[in-house]
Amino acid sequence: xxxxxxxxxxxxxxxxxxxxxxxxxxxxxxxxxxxxxxxxxxxxxxxxxxxxxxxxxxxxxxxxxxxxxxxxxxxxxxxxxxxxxxxxxxxxxxxxxxxxxxxxxxxxxxxxxxxxxxxxxxxxxxxxxxxxxxxxxxxxxxxxxxxxxxxxxxxxxxxxxxxxxxxxxxxxxxxxxxxxxxxxxxxxxxxxxxxxxxxxxxxxxxxxxxxxxxxxxxxxxxxxxxxxxxxxxxxxxxxxxxx
Length: 243
Ligand SMILES: [Fe+2]
Prior knowledge:
Helix content is 26%, strand content 27%. It is built from 7 helices and 13 strands. Helix 5 crosses helix 7.
């Protein structure tokens, strides 16, 4: 759990793919937003009940099955409002009733807690990161020392390269990264600064090198749990180190 004077973020790791489910709690109202409800809704709602929370919102980082397979059950058991990026809703058309669609840069107000939705496409068309204070819930856009794959319809490595470059430039180094899966042996969370130093996907200046590494090389040479790879160890994969 991470705490701030006005909000807390509770974490559950659930399911066979080590998904992280985050519950954002607004202290003033005891309203809660569940990010990517999946795998074990009873456990998620039990934690909310234990903390005395009223689940008012569901935030989706994207619509891959392992992130949304608990949405219907949460909707049956609560009056929560779904929020997801319009591009994601249009592409996957999950049939959610009256979702609030986002466009990027939107603010979601959870009681007195402001959550900013950033459109971070690449892993999927409408992938979204949610920024709360100095914490970034990153979904599958960025993992600790990794990033989401580009194997499914709607994904695009060129777009993911641009998204990661943008995050590298715009997200302050002290920002805490809360990823969508627990793929690091030692770090369930990280900071942007640590990722800039050790996340191989942030070492590329050249989109063609990035695309080749994401689509061909990474999965042949590396499997989770992920460790840090400093830029100087990327060697042949980053052409600027040949200069
Ligand atoms: Fe995904």
